[in-house]
């Protein structure tokens, strides 16, 4: 960070990077990360990138103007959420708090889950010893059983 409190390092995968990072005028890392998460969400739902071009400068132009089209199977509420996340203006881009409050984002979550009031049997805890072990021996034996989601948003 410089004295202006913004980041100035240009980094990231071109198709995922926020417009303000490309502009090289400084950017708020958290707001840029929201953009990148929006690209990831789009890819998870559509199966392809929202911004694509074989010409890097044309790709950057599309990113800078948020030129993308949602597939026709995207529900209106998903389109609206993506439009707020992939807002090329970081000052008007949706915040994490507002994303978490979005009706589509919250769909399928029980109130107790959202508040962190789950019972230990509902979610398997992360076995950090197994995750960071130098050997794979015994990891399979300690692998927690995954709980299937009750609802899928996609």
From TrEMBL:
Keywords: ATP-binding, Kinase, Membrane, Nucleotide-binding, Serine/threonine-protein kinase, Transferase, Transmembrane, Transmembrane helix. The chain crosses the membrane at residues 32-51. SMART domains: S_TKc. GO terms for molecular function: ATP binding; protein serine/threonine kinase activity. InterPro entries: Kinase-like_dom_sf, Prot_kinase_dom. One of its GO terms (biological process) is signal transduction. It comes from the Eukaryota. It holds the Pfam family Pkinase. Residues 1-105 form the Protein kinase domain. Gene3D superfamilies: Transferase(Phosphotransferase) domain 1. This is Serine threonine kinase. The lineage of its organism: Eukaryota, Viridiplantae, Streptophyta, Embryophyta, Tracheophyta.
